[in-house]
Amino acid sequence: MTTYQTVEDGDVLLRDGTIKLHGPAAFEGMRKAGRLAAETLDALVPFVQPGVTTGQIDDLVRQMTLDGGAVPATMGYRGYEHSCCTSINQVICHGIPGDRVLKDGDIINVDVTPLLDGWHGDSSRMYLVGDVPIKARRLVDVTYECLMIGIEKAKPGARLGDIGAAIQQHAERHRYGVVREFCGHGLGRLFHDAPEVVHAARAGTGPELKPGMFFTIEPMINLGKPGMKMLDDGWTAVTRDRSLSAQFEHSIGITETGCEIFTASPLGLHRPPY
Ligand code: MF3
Ligand code: CO
Ligand code: CO
């Protein structure tokens, strides 16, 4: 059963399984947090180059986040100590920044979540490092299309499953695998809240979308099979068959007529090559 809860600014919100329906002040808060996330991802475009380490990317993300008056929500989150996730090539998600040096031909996802005035802006994009082979570029392209095709389905009256169905259909048409182990999620005052936004689903199933719902869509698409394997660090998720994986993420809010993308790039740097 799905329970909705109309929430107001100042309410203490719990992860109680209810889907929160937010008002205008919350939209304004998410707009600001989402904009900072997008500006941070924009600033990375000239920076993500061969020779740069994922630790240096993390440093830039932390600096931009703090300069913007926010804190990285990932710092201290379930023991995670970094300001972003950096997922290279066969890493599906939650790659840990460190000494790894980017090299020509890598594809990398950077996932940022500034927490600004109590609101979470969660977004990620892919970056191409130097000359990237066509097979990898096509994967990145189709993954971006999967995100946007999912977003097109996000409007009042639709079901959550319509989003996953559209994403799955597009990915599988290209013989890619949709990762099942990780989902999009409700967010707002909380980083990860109901509902779970699965990226492979049946149309017409799941909760009805209502104005005021905030959630992410963040499809992870593998060049090979959908399977995942967790590395011993407990965070890094890689493709079981070691094929390449790509991901894009936006935070959105359902409006009366459709949805608002809180994390859209102010510079129009939506998809690579930027
Ligand atoms: N930003 C990720 C998401 O899209 C969550 C990262 S949690 C971390 O939900 F701890 F791994 F950073
Ligand atoms: Co997310
Ligand atoms: Co994210």
**Share of residues in strands:** 15-25%
Overall radius of gyration: 17 Å
Spans of at least 5 consecutive residues whose pLDDT stays below 50 are none
Secondary-structure content class: alpha+beta
Strand order of the largest sheet: 3-7-8
Query: How many separate helices?
Result: 4
Task: Provide the domain count.
Answer: 1
Name the CATH architecture: Alpha-Beta Complex
Counted beta strands: 19
Distance from first to last alpha carbon: 43 Å
SSE ordering: EEHHEEEEEEEHHEEEEEEEEEE
Characterize the overall form: globular
CATH superfamily: Creatinase/methionine aminopeptidase superfamily
What is this structure's SSE topology?
Blueprint lengths: L3 E3 L12 E3 L2 H21 L9 H14 L3 E2 L11 E5 L2 E3 L13 E6 L1 E3 L2 E2 L2 E6 L5 H19 L7 H14 L3 E2 L5 E3 L6 E5 L16 E4 L2 E3 L5 E3 L6 E3 L5 E3 L2 E5 L4 E3 L13
Parallel strand pairs: 1-2
Antiparallel strand pairs: 3-7, 4-6, 5-16, 6-9, 7-8, 10-14, 11-12, 13-18, 14-17, 15-16, 18-19
Helix pairs in contact: 1-2, 3-4
Task: Report on the architecture of this protein.
With 274 residues, the chain is an alpha+beta fold. It has one domain: Creatine Amidinohydrolase (Alpha-Beta Complex). It has 4 helices and 19 strands. The strands form 7 sheets. Strands 3-7-8 form a 3-stranded antiparallel sheet, with helices on one face. A 3-stranded antiparallel sheet has the order 4-6-9. A 3-stranded antiparallel sheet has the order 5-16-15, with no helix packed on it. β11 and β12 form a beta hairpin. The protein is globular, with a radius of gyration of 17 Å. Bound molecules: 2-amino-4-trifluoromethylsulfanyl-butyric acid (MF3) and cobalt (II) ion (2 copies). The site of one cobalt (II) ion (CO) has 5 residues, from loops. The site of 2-amino-4-trifluoromethylsulfanyl-butyric acid has 12 residues, from loops.
